[in-house]
Structure formats: C-alpha cells, structure tokens
Design goal:
about 575 residues, alpha/beta, globular
Length: about 575
C-alpha cells in the first residue's frame, strides 16, 4: 500500500470515523428525543385527560357540574398542550441546531485538514495520487453543501411537525365540544393546507439540492431524481393553491375537508367503542381497560403501535455477500448511491440511499470507493451501503403516523435501526405476493428481529426499507409487501412489512403506510369488496379503478392526498379486537 493511501486511511479510521460517529449518535438522540417526550409525557397525560372526560360525561347533560367539569377539562387540555408542545419543540430544535451546526463545522474542518495532510504526503510519494486527491476535496465541498440542504430540510420538517400538533389540539378541543366541535374542522382544514404547502416547499428545496449536487457531482441519478421530484412539487403546489387563480375555492375546499375529517373523528370514536363492546362485552372490565389504553377522548386517539424500523444495509467487509461483486454485476450502483460521478440505468426505480462509513453519516471518499472496487472487502475502513437515508425513512414514518390516526392507531418510532443483508436472497429481496417465491425470506428477516409467529407482541411492527424485490412473473417489481397475522383466515405468519423507496418520493411515500394498512387487516378491496380509487391509501394499481370523481375531488379540493376511510377503520378494529386482541388488548 502506498504511503499516501496509508495516511489517508489512517486519518479516516482513527480521526474522522470516531468523531463523526459521536456526532451521528448525538443527532440520532435528538431525533429520538421528540418521540420519547410524546411517549413518556404526552400520551400518559392524554390518557389521564381522556379518563376525566369519561367521568364528566357520566353526569346528565343538563347538570351544571358537567358543564363545569368539561370546561375545566378543556382548560387543562390547552394548558398541558402548550406546556408539553413548547418544551418538546424547543428542546428538540435547540438540540438539532447545536448538533447539526457543530457537526457540519467540525466535520468540514477535520476533513479539510485530513485532505491537506494526505495531499502533502502524496505530493512527495505519489504525485499522480496527489493530483487525484482533488476529487476528494471537491467531494468535501459537495458534502458540506448537501449537509446545509439537509439542515434546511430538517427545520422545515419541524415546522410541519408543529402544525400537525396544532391540528391534534384542534381535534382534541372538537372532541370535548361534541358535535358542536365539528365547526373547528374549518380551522383544522386550513391548518392542514398550510402544512401541505410547507411540505411542498420542503420537497422543492430537497429537489433543488439534488439537482445542484447532481450537476456539480456529475451524478445523473441524483440529477434526474431531483428534476422528477421538483416536477412533482410544482404539480402539488398548483393543486394546493388551486392553480393560484382558484385559491379561494381551494381554501374553501380545505375547510370542507377539515370538517369532513372532524366528523369522521367523532364517528371513529363510535366505531372503536362498538368494536370493543361487541368483542369484550359492554360494561366489562376488559372493555374499560381497552378504552383507557386507547385514550378514547384524547387526540390523536388510538391504540399505540411502535414501528421497529430498520434500514437494510450492505457491509464493505462482508465476504459472503460481496458488495464489490454486486456492483460489478449491476445489482447495485455504488457510484450512484454514493453521489459520485455516474450514469443512471434505472432512473425512476433507483432507491435514494447512501454510502457512509460504519456508524456515521460521513460519506465515503471517492478514493476509498475506488480502492474498494479494485481490491475488494477489507481494503478500506468499513463502510455501509443503505437502501434509504435516515431522513427519508423518518419522513415516511411521520407520514404513516399522521395517516394512521384516521384508523384509531397511534404509530410511534422512537428509534430507526439497521438490519444487514447477509444472503443473496436479500438483494434483491426474494419475496413476492406470488408463490413462488412467497414471503418466506421476508419472514426470516422478521425472525432475526425477534418474531416467532407465536405469542408475538403485535403492537411492535417490524418495518424494513430495503433495495429491491425480485421481479414478478409479469416483469414488474413490487413497491412493498406485508406478512400479516390473520389466524381466523388460517393465515398466521411472522408478521411485519417491507418496502422500497423510489422516485418520485411524494407518490411513493405512502407505500409504507399502505403496507401497514395490510398489517392492520386492510385489503386492496374495500369492506364491501369494491375496487379502490386513487384517493385511498389502500389503492393498488393492479386492481384499483384509478382516477374517479371521488379522487378528483380529494386531490383538487379537499386534502390533496390519499387517506384511510371510516370503513377502513371499521376493518382495522375488526382485526384489532379479533385476531389481534389477545396481544393488543389482553
């Protein structure tokens, strides 16, 4: 090994990786902090308030004590929401700003110093390698620009989270006011429209970042992905603003959509109460335990589930599933995934992943990647190839959490973990809705995550984002696949979901929640056996009716995105209080 290569790898292994590993861990703690506050503070308080409201409603409606009780409950709701929300977001945002800004500066300084030391050594030992090292200096500049774009994306994500919390407060107040509170749906709908517009801005900035970095880095995949996502963002902006000219009409439509959703929330409460009473017996102790667990009067209301979220990755040190061999055979494109100079064979079908040193968010240098592709496993400090970026996975999980509320489900995801691909059947994933291959390989992955198929904790949902599926017999590739637990249909498996990300992101960020819908008992056909339209999350291109009047109305005037229906909630609660009851509501 040349002296300059030894120096470069020593600096990477002994300085850059340890420091950035610490920074990465600090950033992850910030990501988890908000979820922890919600789980350990917000949800217990919501359950307590829900129980107080139940006691208030036991009094006759004409009793002044009930009016006073409900008024006090509303005041407590608002005060608690303000305190918890302000603390949660101030702590989270400060943590993010400190760790990200310091991380960007420290990483940039260390990488530049490391590059300069390597350049000087190479200049005397291998002048050609010194000249080539300018590629790594350019990569350092591009990575820093990328980190700045990611920071802006993170802050806009926080704005969306705050607006979502405000929507929850509106729902909570509407619940306390009974059917009179439906009027607050107008405010909820307008806030939802503002949230969607911020989401459009966020996606547009992310797309511009991909375009800029794609052009400057010569990465055709990233450039084309950015252009496609930017086109999608522009289309969404036109829909959300009523093509600008008809914005007042769009505003009215958003208000109507908010009222519709508020009505559905009231009806959802009755759906849940009826399902529990029917399965556990009206007035039974188990019924009361279930209602307390759900927080029936809280908003968001629902049974708590946690996504055991894992990003699939490949290790550069693995000699069994050889990463170099996968690249050479065209199974994956390391240059494209790493953001380096590359062409793009499957423009739309490529995942937005990352290639980083093990345990860090530090992108692998061009020099180390080239060395690895020449010499194979073990030739450079270990790096991992992920099928999805952490930020994108979190966005998909947040979308699933927001949409699941319409089913009466609260989906948490305190930690985003990893799962290593170790077998050829993992990349591409040898799983399908056809037999063969079926989902045996997928279930084996869930087994590695603790599933046994017997007495599993169904509130913990294995959720894996991976690279690709094997093609179906018609040549098409799945977007996602659920292994469900339905013993009543003699179909009990090691349950969980897998999916892959692809371009355009907005169109496919609902794939994860679609697969979770299957997990919760939903199918591609609705409760009455009818095919679904494009405005429903459980729509499938292979069986759905596509764009009908309901879908046009939803996208042009109401929410602007797919949703779960009230009948979907009925089906989900049939599963929760049926096949899932022993685990979920014992």
């Amino acid at each position: 090994m040349a002296a300059c290569q030894e120096v470069r790898q020593w600096i990477t292994k002994n300085i850059l990786v340890p420091v950035t590993r610490f920074i990465t861990a600090a950033r992850e703690r910030c990501e988890e902090l908000k979820q922890r506050i919600e789980e350990n503070v917000s949800q217990p308080v919501d359950k307590w308030i829900s129980r107080q409201e139940e006691r208030c409603r036991e009094l006759p409606w004409w009793n002044p004590l009930r009016w006073f009780c409900e008024l006090v409950t509303i005041v407590v709701k608002v005060v608690v929401w303000v305190v918890v929300t302000v603390v949660k977001w101030v702590v989270t945002i400060v943590c993010q700003i400190v760790t990200v800004v310091i991380g960007i500066i420290v990483t940039l300084v260390l990488r530049v110093i490391g590059w300069f030391v390597t350049f000087v050594v190479c200049l005397f030992s291998d002048p050609l390698e010194a000249l080539k090292s300018f590629r790594d200096l350019w990569t350092i500049v591009l990575d820093t620009v990328g980190e700045i774009f990611n920071f802006v994306d993170l802050l806009l994500g926080d704005v969306i989270g705050i607006l979502t919390d405000v929507e929850d407060l509106i729902d909570s107040l509407a619940s306390s006011l009974g059917w009179l509170g439906v009027i607050l749906g107008i405010v909820k709908g307008i806030i939802g429209l503002v949230r969607d517009l911020v989401s459009v801005i966020r996606d547009a900035i992310h797309s511009l970042g991909d375009i800029v970095l794609g052009v400057l880095g010569g990465n055709l995949c990233r450039l084309l992905r950015g252009l496609t996502d930017l086109g999608t963002a522009i289309g969404r902006a036109l829909l959300d603003t009523g093509f600008v000219v008809f914005f007042p009409v769009r505003l009215i439509g958003a208000a109507v959509g908010g009222v519709r959703d508020s009505v559905n929330q009231h009806q959802l409460e009755e759906v849940i109460r009826s399902a529990i009473a029917r399965s556990f017996g009206a007035g039974s102790e188990r019924e009361q335990r279930a209602l307390d667990e759900i927080g029936i009067n809280a908003r968001p209301m629902g049974l708590a589930f946690r996504a055991d979220a894992r990003r699939m990755f490949l290790s550069s040190n693995d000699r069994e599933l050889d990463l170099k061999d996968l690249h050479d055979r065209g199974v994956i494109n390391l240059h494209a995934l790493a953001g380096h100079l590359s062409d793009c064979e499957r423009v739309i079908n490529q995942p937005e992943g990352e290639v980083v040193y093990a345990g860090t968010t530090l992108n692998v240098s061009y020099a180390d990647l080239e060395t690895f592709l020449r010499e194979g496993p073990g030739s450079v400090p270990e790096f991992h190839v992920f099928a999805i970026t952490r930020a994108k996975f979190r966005t998909h999980l947040e979308t699933a959490n927001r949409k699941a509320a319409a089913l009466g489900v609260r989906l948490g995801f305190p930690v985003i973990g990893d799962i290593q691909a170790t077998l050829p059947q993992h990349v591409p994933l040898d799983a399908s809705d056809q037999t063969p291959p079926g989902d045996a390989v997928q279930q084996a992955l869930f087994q590695l995550m603790g599933r046994t198929g017997v007495n599993d904790d169904l509130s913990l949902v294995p959720s894996i984002s991976h690279f690709h599926y094997v093609p179906r017999t018609d040549g098409n590739e799945l977007f996602g696949l659920a292994s469900w637990f339905r013993p009543s249909s003699r179909d009990a498996r090691m349950s969980g979901v897998t999916y892959r990300n692809r371009t355009p992101d907005w169109g496919f960020r609902f794939v994860l929640v679609h697969e979770l819908g299957h997990y919760w008992g939903l199918d591609h056909e609705d409760r009455n056996g009818n095919d679904r339209s494009l405005d429903q999350i459980m729509y499938a291109p292979s069986t759905g009716v596509g764009l009908d009047a309901a879908a046009v109305l939803e996208y042009l005037l109401l929410s602007g995105e797919p949703r779960f229906t009230l009948d979907d909630a009925r089906s989900a609660w049939d599963w929760i209080t049926g096949d899932g009851a022993a685990s979920l509501l014992p």
